């Protein structure tokens, strides 16, 4: 399930990036790449700081890191919404009873 979500998010980010390049010329040398790098770092920092307040925490693995790094703040919002809705990135608690 999480691999499918990763594939969908990567495709969505690629389409949005291509659209942004066509419309605004975002990947110019003057600042577009720096903006993308700052957005990626913000997404990863938001993922880290979100785990301080969300219980149970979002599992930090290669999939969530890639989504937040590629999508930035928007990727973080996608991961957070999927986690809060318990669609993906949710690890249910297992209660073990000792008898």
Largest sheet: none
User: Structural class, from secondary structure content?
Assistant: mainly alpha
**Low-pLDDT residue intervals, each spanning 5 or more residues:** none
Quantity of strands, as a count:
0
Number of helices, counting only DSSP H or I runs of 4 residues or more? 3
Helical content class: 55-70%
Termini gap: 34 Å
What order do the helices and strands follow?
HHH
Q: Percent of residues in beta strands?
A: under 5%
Question: What is the multimeric organization of the chains shown?
Answer: single chain
Please, what is the average pLDDT? 77
Envelope shape: elongated
- Domain module tally: 1
**Rg estimate, integer Å:** 16 Å
What does this 3D model show about the protein?
This protein is an all-alpha fold and 99 residues long. It has one domain (2-84). Helix content is 66%, strand content 0%. The longest helix has 23 residues, at 2-24.
Any descriptors?
single chain; 99 residues; mainly alpha; 3 helices; 0% strand
Topology, please?
Layout lengths: L1 H23 L7 H19 L11 H23 L15
Helix pairs in contact: 1-3, 2-3
